[in-house]
Amino acid sequence: MLKKENSYSKIKKIMESIVKELEEKRDYLNRLDGEIGDGDHGRTIANAFKKAQEVLLESESGREDEARLSGENADLGTLLKAIGKTIAFSTGAAAGPLYGTAFIEAGKTTEGKEELRLEDWAKLTEAAEAGIIRRGKGKVGEKTMLDTLHSMVEALKEMLVQNKPLKEALTRAKEAAREGMESTREMVSKRGRSSRLGERTRGHIDPGAASTYYIIKAIIENCH
Predict the structure, then answer these.
(1) Residues 61, 76: contact at Cβ < 8 Å?
(2) Dihedral of the CA atoms 90, 93, 15, 153 (nearest 10)?
(3) CA-to-CA distance for 85 and 104, rounded, in angstroms?
(4) pLDDT per position as a tens digit, 154-213
């Protein structure tokens, strides 16, 4: 669980893990994007999360406008919303606002939280998904990041109904996210520039679905 007294250090560790994961997968994500898009998704997303990480680290320097992020009052909601705002404005690409919105909406559900239980995970991921849908006007099945995230949301709901332990539920959620990512391979793109390629997009994993999985993977592996 994430507890309030170490919210900053825990989020800091998670962000370090996300940035490391995205840096390692940068070239792979660029290649995926090159098959059906502009070929820069890995660079764009890695840079966006690196910028968010830098904002967290700068808060330790005591800058007045950022010190609250590393202080005792920086609960999970405050931290997630700060990360989301940085990501949303870190790039001119369409992906930044979508990922940023996901973190902001997740932050709204965790304001004042001292720890995250399974029901909190279910709510925050559902809120993140709803935010992306509102912002991007997309839906599941269109070969996007939503296909990864929705699979995670559904898995968490199922684990909640079954009253599973948090660790087991998160492990299953990570597996479901990977399955969601893999499912995009046989889909035809319906959103963004890649949609112009039609059937040519079939047979390729969507880069946004892939980066979303790697972000989820990094988060969950640091929450056990």
Answers:
(1) no
(2) 130
(3) 7
(4) 999 999 999 999 999 999 999 999 999 999 999 999 887 788 888 988 999 999 999 999
CA–CA dist 129, 109 (Å, integer): 13
Q: Which of 28, 11, 16, 15 is closest to 211 using CA atoms?
A: 28
- What six digits make up the tokens of 155? 């898995």
- Kindly tell me the number of DSSP H helices and DSSP E strands found in the chain: 9, 0
CATH of 4-220 given 3.30.70.260, 1.50.10.10, 3.30.70.890, 1.25.40.340: 1.25.40.340
Per domain, the residue ranges of the chain are 4-220
How far CA 41 is from CA of 93, 173, 181, in Å, comes to 9, 24, 15
Amino acid at site 41: H
pLDDT per position as a tens digit, 13-37? 999 999 999 999 999 999 999 988 8
How deeply is 61 buried, as exposed, middle or buried, from its count of CB atoms within 10 A (0-12, 13-18, 19+)? exposed
Closest CA to 224 of 153, 148, 165: 165
